Amino acid sequence: MLQGKILVIDDDVDVLDAAKLYLKRHLAKVDTETDPQVLPDLLHNESYDVILLDMNFTKDVSSGKEGFYWLDQILKLDPSAVVVLITAYGDVELAVKAIKEGATDFVVKPWENKKLLATVLSSMKLRASRLESEKLRSWQKQVSADMDYHYQAIIGQSAPMLQLYETIRQVARTDANVLILGENGTGKELIARAIHRNSQRSEAVFVNVDLGALSENLFESELFGHVKGAFTDAKEDRPGRFEIASGGSIFLDEIGNLSISMQAKLLSVLQSKNVVRVGSNKTIPVDVRQIFATNMDLYQMVKEKSFRQDLLYRINTIEIHVPPLRERVEDIPLLAEYFLQQYVKKYQKNIRSLSEPALKRMQKYPWPGNVRELQHVMERAVIMNKGYTLQAEDLFINVRQTYEAEGQDKESVVISNFNLEHVEKIMIQKILRKYHGSVTQAARELGLTRTSLYRRMEKYDL
Ligand SMILES: Nc1ncnc2c1ncn2[C@@H]1O[C@H](COP(=O)(O)OP(=O)(O)OP(=O)(O)O)[C@@H](O)[C@H]1O
């Protein structure tokens, strides 16, 4: 006996009895109904694998009108429903029309039992694969939503950020290629996602590809797909990222890391808007909005002949420059506050704020890892601390870099002013530099406790 729940609807009781008698021998559950009006209630309470539906419910009428009406109702109630129509002999034309309207198959009355069973079984398979793809679709939607959740808010009110929001708003509406340039951790992916979310493709997928992580071998099969047997590990046909992204957007990150031969392959797909899976010669059209990003100087690379000029001109229709964090110092308190709130919630801490000196220290630091680094500093500080306020010494930022950024000479110290406090400040700076920002070692050499060194660092705004 096979699993399977079948519903048969026909106003002819003899037809229902015959169908039930035979199908019951092979399937777990066979329900029958004479009145299609009960369909909405039935479908609300039960999920049928196959619904066998008569075309004509009023005797002597053979227009099939009612059949079409109920077919439509069933598909509205359950878009994955599999409906097999029961037609009278000679109604084949009507049945073909019904298939165009969404029916899966049809059986002609009076039927041959074996043929009926074969039709029901193949329809059950179709139902199983429809349910599976529906599950995958909703799973994919959920995963995308979860991913996107972490990339929702773009924080920053500095002039360059306001300008950036305006650009995102303008380009999102178009399908133009966008090249996002900026240092690591400045938020390039965040911006790419914002463009997608504000575009007409927002309901479709956003596919993210880190080109820097793709080897020469994997590049083609990852991006364009492959067919079974194309190479040793190709156990089945697989679509590439471009095909998966079709209808939506693709974000090709680290575009500057592609070898010249990979650049040529990518360019040809961008030009033709078609992909060919590895091992096949069939061209598959793709409709994808393309967004690119890199932290490398592509113009310099063109000069050095390590990046194709024609590829650069194809991808840079719109260019977005994301400024490093050190050039928008006024955003640092906003970002710090934002991440503080996030991590306080995540790690269930009572920390409420950052002290003024802590903020000052953050604003002096050059943030070579940009927002990502700031995010990590805040996460670490929240994990490692209790209390209500984070102090400057609670932030594990690399003090040494702060001095280097201020253009301090590493070795010699020229003291031009012998005011004692000034001398003390200069000496503390020098020793901190010597120990690469390690407060413990610097305090030991200066003959101070860590606390009193911290107190002085705060006093001198270090
Ligand atoms: N303006 C911002 N507001 C809030 N979070 C931000 C902002 N900029 C960056 N972030 C966060 O910083 C982290 C790094 O951002 P993202 O991955 O977008 O940077 P990226 O420039 O693509 O980095 P990479 O070049 O290393 O790939 C992410 O967690 C992101 O959410």
Automatic annotation (TrEMBL):
Gene3D superfamilies xrefs: 1.10.8.60, 3.40.50.2300, Homeodomain-like, P-loop containing nucleotide triphosphate hydrolases
GO biological process terms on file: phosphorelay signal transduction system; regulation of DNA-templated transcription
Domain of life the protein comes from: Bacteria
UniProt modified residues of type 4-aspartylphosphate: D54
Originating species: Rapidithrix thailandica
Protein name: Sigma-54 dependent transcriptional regulator
Pfam entry (one): HTH_8
Cross-referenced SMART domains: AAA (SM00382), REC (SM00448)
UniProt entry keywords in alphabetical sequence: Activator, ATP-binding, DNA-binding, Nucleotide-binding, Phosphoprotein, Transcription, Transcription regulation
PROSITE patterns, sorted: RESPONSE_REGULATORY, SIGMA54_INTERACT_2, SIGMA54_INTERACT_3, SIGMA54_INTERACT_4
Annotated ranges, domain Response regulatory: 5-124
All copies of domain Sigma-54 factor interaction, residue ranges: 154-383
Gene Ontology MF terms: ATP binding; sequence-specific DNA binding
